[in-house]
Structure formats: C-alpha cells, structure tokens
Amino acid sequence: MLLFSCKILTSLNLSLVFCLFVINNAVITISTATEFDFGTLTLASLKLLGDAHMNNGSVRLTRDVTVPYDGAGKALYSKPVRFRLPGTHTPASFSTFFSFSITNLNPSSIGAGLAFVITPDGEQVGSAGGSLGLLDEKGAGLGFVAVEFDTLMDVEFSDINGNHVGLDLNSMVSTEVDNLDTINVDLKSGDLVNSWIEYDGLTRAFNISVSYSNLKPKVPILSFTLDLDQYVNDFMYVGFSGSTQGSTEIHSIEWWSFSSSFESNSGTGSGSAPPPPTASLMNPTANSVKSPPPSLAPSGSSTTQKSSKSSSCHNQLCKQGAGAVAGVVTASAFFAIFAGVLIWFFSKRYKHVKKSESFTSDIIRMPKEFSYRELRSATKCFNANRIIGHGAFGTVYKGILPQNGDIIAVKRCSHNSQGKDEFLSELSIIGTLRHRNLVRLQGWCHEKGEILLVYDLMPNGSLDKALFEARSPLPWPHRSKILLGVASALAYLHQECENQVIHRDVKTSNIMLDEGFNARLGDFGLARQVEHDKSPDATVAAGTMGYLAPEYLLTGRATEKTDVFSYGAVVLEVASGRRPIEKEITGVGKVGVASNLVEWVWSLHREGRLLTAADARLEGQFDEAEMRRVLLVGLACSHPDPLARPTMRGVVQMLVGEAEVPIVPRAKPSMTFSTSHLLLSLQDSVSDCNGMITLSSSSSENDFIHGDHLV
C-alpha cells in the first residue's frame, strides 16, 4: 500500500514538473515576444534623445533649422527588447517596417543620414556628422547593429556614394552595402521611402528591402547571413538614430512597426511586423504617436467612420424602400462621376496649356529643344549605370546621342516643386550666358512631366575629384590655369552680363574640367540674376559650409562679394590640397576637431611661413612667387569684411600680373558689420542668430562637409 502511494506521488510530481516546465516555457515565449507600432505607442513609450523631437505626429531626429549645423538625435522604444535567450544565446527573429523621408531646407548642403539601430544603451547620443549619432566623440562604437541610409559619401568610412544602404556592426564602415541608385530610390528626394528589415534567428537570414511603393519588393536589395547573437546582448534597445553634417537635412520617421519573437519568420510568420491598423482600431485617448500614413491606411477605415455616422437616419431617403434608395444613389453617383470627369478633363487641359505657355515663355531664348524620346534613348532609359553624379536639384546621366554619337550630360530634375523651380532658374540663366569658362548648355526638354537639361560632358570630371581622388596629384600649371579660368567666369557673371548673376554655390565640385583641364563653372541651380547697382533681396542662406561668407550666413543676402569669398576658399583649397573644412587626424589615428582652412593659412601668414601652405604632394614643383601671389589672393578674397575683398575683375588682373595683390594683414581681422549689412527683418535676424547659437553650442567646430554635385 505504501509502495503504491509512493508511485502515485511520484507520478503526480512528474506531472507537476512537466506542467510547470510547459507553463514556464510558455511564459518565456510570451515575455520574450515584442510587438508595437506607431498606432499603439504613446509618448511615454518613446525615448527622444539629443535633437530628436515630435512634429505633427512624426518623429524627427534632427532640428528644423535653416542654417547648416552639426547635430544628432535618437528615438528609441523605451523598453529594452530581448534579443537572446538566457543561457542558450539563441538570437531572436525580428521584423520591422518603417516609412521615412529626408528633406533639406537647403538642397545644396547635404549629409549625413539616418539608421535603424539596435543598441545596448538607451541614454547616450553619439557625435554628429558622418557617424549618424552612433559613434562617441572618440570615434568608438557603442556596441550597435545598424542599417544605415546615408546621404553623403564619406571617404573616412569607405562609403560607395552619397545614396546607399548598408549594415553597420559597431563601426561606420559597412560590412554589407548597396547602391540605392540601382533601384531608382533617391534618399535626398524628400519623397516617402519604405523599408523592410527582417531577420530569422533559426536560419540567420538577414534581408533588407527598400522601395517607394507600399508593397515589399520580391527581391531585397541586401540579403546575407549574420550570427546576430555575436553582436547583441540579451536585452537591447531598438529605434532610430540620425545626424546632420554641416547641413539642414530633416530626418522624419512617419511610420514604424516592430515585431520580435523566438520563432522562425519563415515557418509561422510570427516575426513579421504588424501592418498599419485602421483608424477604428486606434485609441485616440491614449496619446498615440500618430495614425498610419494615408498611403498605408486601409481603405476600410473611412468606411467604418462613415457607417457609424450614418447609423441614425433622419432624411427622406432612409424612409423609402431599398430599391428607391439604390436607384437614387446610383443616379446620383452616375451624374457625380460624369460631372467629375468633365471637370477633371478640362481643368487638366487648362493647366497643361497654362504650364506649357508659361514654360515656353520662360525659355523662348534657350538653345535647342530635345525630344524626351531622344534623351531617353541617349541615356538607355535613364539607366542607373549611366549616372555620373548628383546636382543640387537633380541626377546627372551620361548620354550618347544616337544620330551623331555626341557624348552629353543630361541633368534630370528632381520630382518636387522646389527642384523644378531651381531647374527653371538654372535654365533661364545659363541659357543666355556665353563664356569659355562656363559649362555650355546644349539644350533642354520638357515632356511627360520631366524637365531635362543637356550639357557638354566634361571628360576630366570635377575639380574636387581631380584634387582628392586622382591617382597622381594635379600639376601646378593645371591648377593655376583653372583658378584663372574660374576667376574669368565670375568676372563675366558679375560685371559683363546684361544682368549681374550671383552664382551662390562656387566650390570645387561645381567646377568641371574639359579635355585640356580648362575650368568650366557649372550648377546654376542656386544662381540669381540682379540688375547692376541694385541691392539683392535677402533669402535663406544657400550653399555649402566652408564656402559661405560670414555676412551671408548672418543676413541671407547674396552679393558678388559673397561669391568672391567662395572663390577665395576655392583658391586656398586648390593651392594647399586641403578642403575648406576637414577633420584633423591625431597621432593615434583618431579623428579630432575640424580644421578651418582660412584660419590655418592665415596663421601661417602671421608666422611668415605662407609657402608652407602649398600642397606637399606637389613636392615643390611650382614657382614660389606665383604660389605666394595665389595664396595672398586667396586670403584677400577671404577677408571677413566684404568691402575689403577685391572684385573678380581685379582678381583676374592680379593672377596675370597686371595688378598688385592688396596688402593682406598678418593677423586675420575680426568680423565686423555696419548697420547697412544687417538687411533682414528683426524677426528673421533673431531666428537666424538663434540657429547660429544652436550651431555653436552643438559643435565647437564644423565637421567636414563635401558636396557631390555635378554640372
């Protein structure tokens, strides 16, 4: 009897242990699964760090400022997510879907981008610039896994271009990377971009998909295997990190859903990110982050709302039979649709005629008009392999005209209103200009909603690539000829045109080189025409940091003297082989503070060692008197006081030896402005000053920013 009782107790104990084991596993499975989206998140569910903030239901990672600055921000889910099982270190499967946009208040100043990040730290924000807020000030990683969406080619991180997606494992040098141009996605377009990131903990498959469409592409842009357990802790934070690098980029997360579990994605599908909910499922009283984007919300949401509103009926249609109601509704719908079609047809026709007439009147004096079919054929249907660069407001393709075999450069307008406006500005200005040192506009095309500009293709590319990416250093005779050519072009724009043209974006990447290394100044997307002896209007500062005159940043008024300052930066860059703003490398190979080229050259001038600024790669192969004259011209053009800067006609005379270089003070003068220089309204001035104060407080020095604009 006792033995029988023991057996019963043993069986009960085993059953109890088994039940507890099953329950425990179930609890672990439930507790380790995470699922959320923007519809269910509350403000308390998000950690907004650094510059990150909310704006009309979107999460913005960087500030909305019109003055280029360096900043970084993070937005993280407030609760850590389990990414490894205790003991076994089995990695979790996860899936996330998010929609984001990258817009720019100043399209000519780009950089740096944003990233979906898995990080062990939920409190710190890394440094600004190309590190996307993921690296600390010493350049060390914080133990992260990130999928970056980069808008600037940073040589320091071996970037392939300024429009790519990559996987970063505790380093900004991507282990997996691909060019987004191959799928016709432009991160800088300002359009909504969708991304799907999926990881299967069982198969270790990692897939990244990107598209403008709401439908996930059948083939991911990146697909590889990864032992995620080697790069994550048991618990990690998930979210987004973004930064600017001397730019006005705004990084917005419009929608985000995330799901993780310890089941295989491929088996049950439990790891797929939840879809955007309908409006009826949202809780308006829960302070939810936002409703789904209109393009993603199912159409049934509107139906649900309408049906609830019409549940109580008081009109005569409700009191009649179903047939009468159906008949009236059908007839009404028919006439409404018919009237709508007529209105749409005539309005479209009117708008098309109006736009065509307006556009034609703007370019009546322009060069040849090309057909869309002709340029489409020349660029192989605008094949991504034909892309040779990105201008301020469009993409540049190499083309070969089928009728004569001429090689051309075709600039395709960005698909936004600002891009089209800037294209029209460029077209209306450069189409009337004729100078040997300006990029020649061959023609234009305006068909099928596209605006295309056709230029001569410059076989030797841009000056910045010749200076910094060529295998051998650019010889000094070429450099001096290039500087003289650019000075001649600016003198023509400032003093010899019917209307004065202020370029506003003079920099080495906008200077093209023909087969004889003659300079051709291009990219007139930011240029403005002004009548001679008439003051220009104040606008938001446009251009690239390092080339912008100090008074232009403060007042927003571009004059010929702001172009002279930009030219001075180009002169010093060409003579020294150093960028206007670049990061200094310390003795241990770490990136230090940013170095300002003008300050450095002026310090050498103060010490009586001006020739030390000459590019060491030239190995002394230059005339010292000519080099000294060029460096002094560069400093004279970089004078803080715009009234003390020479004219471009005077610069040409100095470079050819027809005029003496003005006396350049040994110590750099301090920046002073008379009241006549402060041309903005009080409100605009305060706004711009606040932006500059923010800039100085967020970073002691500006990080290197290098534009990638062509033509």
Q: Overview of this structure, please?
A:
The chain is α+β, with helices and mostly antiparallel strands and about 700 residues long. The chain folds into 3 domains: about 25-275, Jelly Rolls (Sandwich), CATH 2.60.120.200; about 370-455, Phosphorylase Kinase, domain 1; about 465-530 and about 540-700, Orthogonal Bundle (Transferase(Phosphotransferase), domain 1). The protein has 15 helices and 28 strands. The strands form 6 sheets. Strands 1, 3, 4, 7, 12, 13, 14 and 16 form an 8-stranded antiparallel beta sheet that branches. Strands 2, 5, 6, 8, 9, 10, 11 and 15 form an 8-stranded antiparallel beta sheet that branches. Helix 9 packs antiparallel against helix 14 (about 650-655) and helix 11 (about 560-575) runs antiparallel to helix 13 (about 625-635).
Termini separation: 99 Å
How many structural domains does the protein architecture include?
A: 3
Helix content: 25-40%
Strand residue percentage: 15-25%
CATH class (first level) name of the largest domain:
Mainly Beta
- Poorly predicted runs: 1-31, 267-271, 277-287, 292-331, 349-365, 531-541, 585-593, 674-711
The overall pLDDT average reads 76
What is the third-level CATH name, the topology of the largest domain? Jelly Rolls
**Biggest beta-sheet profile:** 8 strands, antiparallel
Report the structural category: alpha+beta
Shape: globular
User: Counting H and I runs of at least 4 residues, what is the number of helices?
Assistant: 15
Radius of gyration: 30 Å
CATH architect. name of the largest domain: Sandwich
What's the β-strand tally? 28
Protein name: non-specific serine/threonine protein kinase
EC number: 2.7.11.1
Keywords: ATP-binding, Cell membrane, Glycoprotein, Kinase, Lectin, Membrane, Nucleotide-binding, Receptor, Serine/threonine-protein kinase, Signal, Transferase, Transmembrane, Transmembrane helix
Family: In the N-terminal section; belongs to the leguminous lectin family. In the C-terminal section; belongs to the protein kinase superfamily. Ser/Thr protein kinase family.
